[in-house]
Amino acid sequence: MDAKEHWFLQGFLVLAMVIAQGATSKCPSSPLCYKKTESATIYTCEWETSESMKNATYELFYSRSNSTESRSLGSSRKSYICVQDNTVLNKALVDIWVVAYMGNWRCQSLNTTVTLSERVKYEAPQSMSMARSSNNLTLSWDNKNGNKDAVIEVKFRRLEETSGTWTFKKEVKQAMVTLENLQNESVYELQVRQMSKHVKHPLWSDWTPILDVPTEIPNPPEVNWTVEDFNNGTRLLKLTWGTPPYPVSMQVNYNLSLHIWPCLLKRKNFTSVTTTEISVYVTYSAVSGDINAFNKVGKSSPTHILVPAKHLTFPSKSWPNDRLIPLNYAHGFMKSCLEWYKLTDGETRPEKVNRSKLNGTVEKKLKHIREKMDDYVRYYYLVHKQTDGKPHSTEMCLMYKKEGAPSKAPDHFTAPILNVTTNSAMLHWKPIPVPDQRGFLTHYEVCYTRRGPKNESHIETECHNSFASKTEYLVQNLTPGSIYYIHLAGATAAGSGPTTTIEIATKPLPQSVIGWIIAGIIVLIAILITVCLFIIKRHKRKIFPPIPRPVVAESVNYRARNQNMYEKEEVHELQLHDNCSQEPNPEEATVLEVSETHECEDTDEKCLRESSTPVSDLLSPDYKGQVLRLETPDSSQGEIDCMVTMLMYRNGLVFDMKAYSTEDVGIPL
């Protein structure tokens, strides 16, 4: 064969091989057969196919290695077939292949020679759980390998290093592996696979999906709660809590359990809560529960929740023998129930409460409850009912089976013990504890007594009542610089209890204050005297009017000599009457009237003087202040004696005078 023929034959062989490889690439791969566990009775044979063969039908065949006879193990349109255990297949060495059919086209895979009992491939770990503590991480999963050890391989890296290399670790354990020396505050990602160590030809399982490993939760949730009271026996409880910081907050959920319905002991659970708040309807009874945060690696310590009951803050009632309470108690424990318990400190609900169950009539039940109660002990009861699935309290009451007087006095006066001034003192005290009240406090009695001198036999005591809800009282109207004894006692409807006594001393008035008070009194008296004198001087003429003095007629010479010595009086009216005749003739009577209007000496008033007779002709224009002379005829002295002179002043004074001389009579005006 020459060189030309040689190259032609070699090219033909290459072409045949390419065609054969092209046809083979469409055929399924050699089948892989295995058991999932050592004790499994079913084999799984799987193969790989191309995308163009997805509509093909596959048939699995086997034959003994020393035989040409083939047998079918089944057909499927999927890329695997499950085969029931067969003694021949399990023990013998066999050849296995797959034939694909698609239309008229047929393709066979390559043969696989295997002893099936020696092939085991575990499933990838499932239901993976993690527990992280300090720097260690423990992984565990469901053990489906018959409690046998396996070879476990883990690859992991920090989440911040997604482009970095994986760290591998192998360990032989039963469905568990522990990773050590991790960074406590870092988030990791990992994958796990496993392999049997009890067969001759084991196979690795598939890798698990990439799993994120968060950090552990160091602190419990901080829970806040608010209650909205609808005043109809129902409250809306809203719970809120904060989200932990990153990276603790990754994949954090919450489990919450609440005791909402008092008639049953069972709690209501809220699992895998993804939000940070929840709202529920509750009764007036106390609500208790717990909440914790959890993620893949663990959970936090629980936070205890306690929402107190809506207790009454005022006295309610006692339970007399002739009355059964409560009123709104219905039959049926699921629909209505009675809850009652002691209030040891007046507010706190005890851990153990009493819940009633109907074993007979309501009356018998209530009588039985009353027999269990103690005298002088405060109880609290509530009646609960459910309507349309919403719980509410139909009745609530603070009560005593029987009341008594307090067994203890109020605690000693607290600091500041007393705020004492000169005339008052503020008292502060601690309330009587509820167990010592033995009933509902109606008021506090505050009495105080002033200690008098030794020789004083009568000592007054004054008492007042203070509200039971108050723990302070202001004592007023005390005497400065005195000693008082103050007595304090609590009182119920049954009477007053023991008293506590304290002695106080009011502060004396400072000397400087006394001096200022005296000086003030002196100044006030001086001001009053000054005002009175001013008023008297201002209205002197009204209060003490002046008395006019009449002017006596004198001789001309004497009057001239003593003209300056006379005090001039202004005559308002002058009348002369003749008394000699029994019936005087009005025409003969000489009447002189002089009047004028002038200012009085008092500037605040005006005196009006009017001329009633035309006598101005007898006087000069400036007659005021002149002497009025009356010329009498020289008939006889007897006529003069019969003349009567009458002077009439403005202020109403009248003087009668009689002429005794024949001389001219002068009246100063």
TrEMBL record:
Cleaved signal peptide residues: 1-25
Every Fibronectin type-III domain range: 121-215, 409-510
Residues annotated as transmembrane: 513-536
Signal among keywords: yes
Organism domain of life: Eukaryota
Assigned keywords, A-Z: Membrane, Receptor, Signal, Transmembrane, Transmembrane helix
PANTHER family associated with the record: INTERLEUKIN-12 RECEPTOR SUBUNIT BETA-1-RELATED, INTERLEUKIN-27 SUBUNIT BETA
Protein name: Interleukin-6 receptor subunit beta isoform X2
Phylogenetic classification of the source organism: Eukaryota, Metazoa, Chordata, Craniata, Vertebrata
Chain's gene name: il12rb1
